[in-house]
Amino acid sequence: MDTIAYIDQLANADSIEALWAMHTDRMSRYGFDRLIYGFTRYRTTTSLGDPDDFILLTNQPKAYTDGFIGQGLYFHAPMVRWALENDGACSWRILDGMIGQGALSAEEQKVIAFNHAHKVTAGYSISFRALSSRSKGAIALTAREGLSQDDVEEIWAAHGRDITAMNNVAHLKILALPYTSASRVLTPRQREALEWVGDGKTTQDIAMLMGLTPATVEKHLRLARASLNVETTAQAVLKAALQNQMFILEA
Q: According to the model, what pLDDT value does residue 246 have?
Protein backbone atom coordinates (compact mmCIF):
# COMPACT_ATOMS: atom_id res chain seq x y z
CA MET A 1 0.00 0.00 0.00
CA ASP A 2 1.49 3.36 -0.99
CA THR A 3 1.43 6.47 1.17
CA ILE A 4 -1.62 8.05 -0.48
CA ALA A 5 -3.63 4.84 -0.15
CA TYR A 6 -2.67 4.55 3.52
CA ILE A 7 -3.57 8.18 4.26
CA ASP A 8 -6.95 7.56 2.61
CA GLN A 9 -7.42 4.55 4.89
CA LEU A 10 -6.54 6.64 7.93
CA ALA A 11 -8.97 9.37 6.90
CA ASN A 12 -11.80 6.84 6.73
CA ALA A 13 -11.14 5.12 10.06
CA ASP A 14 -14.36 5.08 12.11
CA SER A 15 -12.85 4.56 15.56
CA ILE A 16 -9.63 5.33 17.40
CA GLU A 17 -9.16 1.61 18.04
CA ALA A 18 -9.24 0.82 14.31
CA LEU A 19 -6.97 3.73 13.48
CA TRP A 20 -4.43 2.82 16.14
CA ALA A 21 -4.28 -0.81 15.05
CA MET A 22 -3.57 0.12 11.44
CA HIS A 23 -1.11 2.86 12.41
CA THR A 24 1.00 0.74 14.74
CA ASP A 25 1.17 -1.92 12.05
CA ARG A 26 2.19 0.63 9.40
CA MET A 27 4.90 2.22 11.55
CA SER A 28 6.31 -1.20 12.46
CA ARG A 29 6.98 -1.81 8.78
CA TYR A 30 9.45 1.09 8.91
CA GLY A 31 11.11 -0.34 12.01
CA PHE A 32 9.20 1.63 14.67
CA ASP A 33 7.42 -1.10 16.61
CA ARG A 34 6.59 0.80 19.81
CA LEU A 35 4.67 4.06 19.79
CA ILE A 36 3.36 6.51 22.37
CA TYR A 37 0.91 9.19 21.24
CA GLY A 38 -0.25 11.88 23.63
CA PHE A 39 -2.47 14.94 23.34
CA THR A 40 -3.77 17.47 25.84
CA ARG A 41 -6.13 20.42 25.49
CA TYR A 42 -5.58 21.59 29.06
CA ARG A 43 -1.92 22.60 29.14
CA THR A 44 -0.81 25.49 31.36
CA THR A 45 2.59 27.03 32.06
CA THR A 46 3.15 24.57 34.91
CA SER A 47 1.11 21.51 33.96
CA LEU A 48 -0.04 19.34 31.10
CA GLY A 49 -3.45 19.11 32.76
CA ASP A 50 -5.24 16.20 34.40
CA PRO A 51 -3.81 12.91 33.00
CA ASP A 52 -7.38 11.57 32.94
CA ASP A 53 -8.11 14.16 30.24
CA PHE A 54 -5.18 13.17 28.01
CA ILE A 55 -5.67 11.32 24.77
CA LEU A 56 -3.04 8.65 25.31
CA LEU A 57 -2.39 5.76 22.92
CA THR A 58 0.48 3.29 23.11
CA ASN A 59 1.55 -0.23 22.28
CA GLN A 60 4.52 -0.12 24.64
CA PRO A 61 4.68 -3.06 27.10
CA LYS A 62 2.90 -2.62 30.43
CA ALA A 63 6.20 -2.76 32.32
CA TYR A 64 7.29 0.36 30.45
CA THR A 65 4.02 2.31 30.61
CA ASP A 66 3.64 1.61 34.34
CA GLY A 67 6.84 3.58 34.92
CA PHE A 68 6.88 6.11 32.13
CA ILE A 69 3.22 7.05 32.36
CA GLY A 70 1.91 5.60 35.62
CA GLN A 71 4.75 7.02 37.73
CA GLY A 72 4.83 10.29 35.82
CA LEU A 73 8.32 9.95 34.34
CA TYR A 74 7.00 11.39 31.07
CA PHE A 75 6.85 14.83 32.70
CA HIS A 76 10.65 14.84 32.98
CA ALA A 77 11.41 13.17 29.64
CA PRO A 78 13.84 15.29 27.55
CA MET A 79 12.00 14.54 24.30
CA VAL A 80 8.68 15.54 25.90
CA ARG A 81 10.31 18.83 26.85
CA TRP A 82 11.52 19.21 23.27
CA ALA A 83 8.04 18.45 21.91
CA LEU A 84 6.43 21.07 24.16
CA GLU A 85 8.84 23.73 22.89
CA ASN A 86 8.98 22.78 19.20
CA ASP A 87 7.02 21.57 16.19
CA GLY A 88 8.05 18.99 13.60
CA ALA A 89 10.21 15.86 13.65
CA CYS A 90 13.31 15.41 15.79
CA SER A 91 15.93 12.67 15.91
CA TRP A 92 16.71 11.21 19.30
CA ARG A 93 20.36 11.91 18.44
CA ILE A 94 19.71 15.31 19.98
CA LEU A 95 19.96 13.56 23.35
CA ASP A 96 23.67 12.91 22.76
CA GLY A 97 24.22 16.65 22.55
CA MET A 98 22.16 17.30 25.68
CA ILE A 99 24.19 14.71 27.60
CA GLY A 100 27.50 16.00 26.27
CA GLN A 101 26.65 19.57 27.26
CA GLY A 102 25.45 18.55 30.72
CA ALA A 103 22.08 20.06 29.87
CA LEU A 104 19.97 17.37 31.54
CA SER A 105 18.56 17.59 35.04
CA ALA A 106 18.80 14.70 37.49
CA GLU A 107 15.17 13.84 36.76
CA GLU A 108 15.81 13.80 33.00
CA GLN A 109 18.86 11.59 33.45
CA LYS A 110 16.68 9.20 35.45
CA VAL A 111 14.24 9.00 32.52
CA ILE A 112 17.06 8.20 30.07
CA ALA A 113 18.34 5.45 32.38
CA PHE A 114 14.79 4.06 32.62
CA ASN A 115 14.44 4.12 28.82
CA HIS A 116 17.74 2.32 28.32
CA ALA A 117 16.69 -0.36 30.81
CA HIS A 118 13.59 -0.95 28.65
CA LYS A 119 15.47 -0.90 25.31
CA VAL A 120 14.01 2.48 24.35
CA THR A 121 17.23 3.82 22.89
CA ALA A 122 16.71 4.88 19.26
CA GLY A 123 13.92 6.65 17.43
CA TYR A 124 12.26 9.89 16.41
CA SER A 125 9.66 12.18 17.94
CA ILE A 126 7.10 14.24 16.06
CA SER A 127 5.52 17.28 17.71
CA PHE A 128 2.29 18.40 16.05
CA ARG A 129 1.60 22.07 15.47
CA ALA A 130 -1.25 23.48 17.56
CA LEU A 131 -3.15 26.73 17.11
CA SER A 132 -4.02 26.94 20.82
CA SER A 133 -1.42 27.57 23.51
CA ARG A 134 -3.30 25.09 25.71
CA SER A 135 -3.14 22.24 23.20
CA LYS A 136 -0.21 20.00 22.37
CA GLY A 137 0.18 16.61 20.77
CA ALA A 138 3.20 14.48 19.97
CA ILE A 139 4.19 10.93 19.12
CA ALA A 140 7.32 9.02 20.05
CA LEU A 141 8.42 6.41 17.52
CA THR A 142 10.69 3.86 19.20
CA ALA A 143 12.89 1.81 16.90
CA ARG A 144 12.83 -1.96 17.03
CA GLU A 145 15.30 -3.51 19.45
CA GLY A 146 18.60 -4.07 17.67
CA LEU A 147 18.33 -0.95 15.49
CA SER A 148 20.83 1.78 16.30
CA GLN A 149 20.24 5.50 15.91
CA ASP A 150 22.43 5.32 12.79
CA ASP A 151 20.02 2.73 11.37
CA VAL A 152 17.10 5.01 12.24
CA GLU A 153 18.74 7.95 10.47
CA GLU A 154 19.00 5.86 7.30
CA ILE A 155 15.31 4.92 7.55
CA TRP A 156 14.39 8.55 8.08
CA ALA A 157 16.50 9.75 5.16
CA ALA A 158 14.60 7.37 2.88
CA HIS A 159 11.07 7.61 4.34
CA GLY A 160 10.96 10.49 6.82
CA ARG A 161 8.67 12.74 4.78
CA ASP A 162 6.14 9.95 4.29
CA ILE A 163 6.31 8.93 7.96
CA THR A 164 5.80 12.52 9.09
CA ALA A 165 2.84 13.00 6.74
CA MET A 166 1.21 9.75 7.90
CA ASN A 167 1.56 10.74 11.54
CA ASN A 168 0.18 14.22 10.93
CA VAL A 169 -2.92 12.75 9.28
CA ALA A 170 -3.28 10.16 12.06
CA HIS A 171 -3.09 12.97 14.64
CA LEU A 172 -5.72 15.08 12.89
CA LYS A 173 -8.02 12.08 12.52
CA ILE A 174 -7.65 11.13 16.19
CA LEU A 175 -8.81 14.62 17.15
CA ALA A 176 -11.97 14.10 15.08
CA LEU A 177 -12.94 10.82 16.77
CA PRO A 178 -14.63 10.35 20.17
CA TYR A 179 -12.16 9.61 22.93
CA THR A 180 -12.39 9.69 26.70
CA SER A 181 -11.58 7.51 29.70
CA ALA A 182 -14.18 4.86 30.54
CA SER A 183 -15.18 6.68 33.73
CA ARG A 184 -16.04 9.85 31.79
CA VAL A 185 -18.22 8.50 29.01
CA LEU A 186 -21.60 10.26 28.96
CA THR A 187 -24.83 8.29 28.88
CA PRO A 188 -27.13 8.91 25.90
CA ARG A 189 -29.48 10.98 28.09
CA GLN A 190 -26.64 13.08 29.53
CA ARG A 191 -25.29 13.69 26.05
CA GLU A 192 -28.72 14.64 24.69
CA ALA A 193 -29.32 17.11 27.52
CA LEU A 194 -25.93 18.74 26.91
CA GLU A 195 -26.60 18.90 23.18
CA TRP A 196 -29.81 20.83 23.83
CA VAL A 197 -27.93 23.18 26.17
CA GLY A 198 -25.41 23.68 23.40
CA ASP A 199 -28.28 24.62 21.12
CA GLY A 200 -29.29 27.36 23.57
CA LYS A 201 -32.34 25.64 25.09
CA THR A 202 -33.48 26.31 28.66
CA THR A 203 -34.16 23.59 31.21
CA GLN A 204 -37.89 23.98 30.58
CA ASP A 205 -37.34 23.68 26.81
CA ILE A 206 -35.18 20.58 27.25
CA ALA A 207 -37.74 18.96 29.56
CA MET A 208 -40.43 19.37 26.89
CA LEU A 209 -38.15 18.18 24.06
CA MET A 210 -36.97 15.10 25.97
CA GLY A 211 -40.35 14.32 27.56
CA LEU A 212 -38.93 14.64 31.06
CA THR A 213 -39.52 16.79 34.12
CA PRO A 214 -37.21 19.78 34.68
CA ALA A 215 -35.89 18.05 37.80
CA THR A 216 -34.88 15.00 35.76
CA VAL A 217 -33.16 17.19 33.18
CA GLU A 218 -31.24 18.89 35.98
CA LYS A 219 -30.24 15.45 37.28
CA HIS A 220 -28.85 14.43 33.87
CA LEU A 221 -26.90 17.69 33.65
CA ARG A 222 -25.56 17.28 37.19
CA LEU A 223 -24.39 13.74 36.43
CA ALA A 224 -22.83 14.95 33.18
CA ARG A 225 -20.87 17.58 35.10
CA ALA A 226 -19.72 14.98 37.60
CA SER A 227 -18.74 12.53 34.86
CA LEU A 228 -16.68 15.17 33.06
CA ASN A 229 -15.23 16.50 36.33
CA VAL A 230 -16.28 20.12 35.77
CA GLU A 231 -18.18 22.65 37.86
CA THR A 232 -20.57 24.28 35.43
CA THR A 233 -22.82 23.11 32.61
CA ALA A 234 -21.07 25.49 30.22
CA GLN A 235 -17.77 23.78 31.03
CA ALA A 236 -19.43 20.40 30.51
CA VAL A 237 -20.66 21.43 27.05
CA LEU A 238 -17.18 22.64 26.08
CA LYS A 239 -15.41 19.56 27.41
CA ALA A 240 -17.86 17.12 25.84
CA ALA A 241 -17.48 18.95 22.54
CA LEU A 242 -13.68 18.81 22.74
CA GLN A 243 -13.88 15.08 23.41
CA ASN A 244 -16.26 14.63 20.46
CA GLN A 245 -18.92 13.24 22.77
CA MET A 246 -21.64 15.53 21.42
CA PHE A 247 -23.59 15.49 18.15
CA ILE A 248 -22.14 12.11 17.20
CA LEU A 249 -23.73 9.59 14.87
CA GLU A 250 -24.70 6.34 16.54
CA ALA A 251 -23.35 3.21 14.88
A: 73
